[in-house]
């Protein structure tokens, strides 16, 4: 199948939102994935949320997903109120931009799984009001939610139809590797998909997540993974998230164009 490809703004480093949007449009990506920090930087520059949303609409590209701030699984008091408020705020922005996915990293600190599941149900209710899904991402730098299995266990415990699984090729390759995690997924279980390649050989330090490459430059078996993903019924965007300081320092148009060419070569 021909995949729809989104450019994650994090692949361009800390470029302003207007620059990232122009890069994505001019280099030919099908959509963009936006981060919460893209908007907070706009606020720091004196722009309102409405002005930032207008920039995105003027770009003309669909928005595949919008990210929120992590830490809401186990937050308490004012911190919890603020973080859940961000989910509601981003959900409203996503609704205005037609984005079906609100993306969230899992919490960096471990805690009680039942408490995390209750938080997922609360967040799921927030995004469900606008017909969205909040997709959870594992991360190799975490302890409690380092693997796909751990995140799937949490999702099963939460059992909320508007909270789903974010599959990321980089983090899966850095943990178990191979194809087993993809093959074990149930049809319809993938809510969102991010991708980048992993360099061959050891990566130091073990918690490093800023050594991501365009597909075809590392060891991720994309030719085997993507047919499995398609067979599981996923038809959404593939979002290119490749964090790498060397790429951040280069011309963003060249970085995005090269990544898109490598991605299109996947089929």
Q: How would you sum up this structure, described in words?
A:
It is a single chain. The chain is an alpha/beta fold and 267 residues long. The chain has one domain: Divalent-metal-dependent TIM barrel enzymes (TIM Barrel). Helices cover 44% and strands 15% of the residues. The chain is built from eleven helices and eight strands. It has helices spanning 17-27, 36-44, 49-59, 77-97, 113-128, 148-158, 169-175, 180-183, 222-231, 245-248, 252-264; strands at 4-8, 31-34, 63-67, 101-105, 133-137, 163-168, 190-195, 237-240. The protein has an eight-stranded parallel β-barrel with strand order 1-2-3-4-5-6-7-8, surrounded by seven helices. Strand 7 (190-195), helix 9 and strand 8 (237-240) form a beta-alpha-beta unit. Helix 1 (17-27) packs parallel to helix 3, helix 1 (17-27) packs across helix 11 and helix 5 (113-128) crosses helix 6 (148-158). The protein starts with a strand and ends with a helix. The mean pLDDT is 95.
CATH topology: TIM Barrel
> CA-to-CA gap between the ends?
7 Å
- Computed Rg: 17 Å
Number of strands: 8
Strand order of the largest sheet: 1-2-3-4-5-6-7-8
Structural class: alpha/beta
Helix content: 40-55%
Query: So, CATH architecture?
Result: Alpha-Beta Barrel
Which regions contain 5 or more consecutive residues with pLDDT less than 50? Answer: none
- Beta-strand portion reads 5-15%
Q: Supply the CATH class.
A: Alpha Beta
Q: What are the secondary-structure elements, in order, as H or E?
A: EHEHHEHEHEHEHHEHEHH
CATH superfamily: Divalent-metal-dependent TIM barrel enzymes
Summarize the biggest pleated sheet. Answer: 8 strands, parallel, barrel
Mean pLDDT, all residues: 95
Number of domains: 1
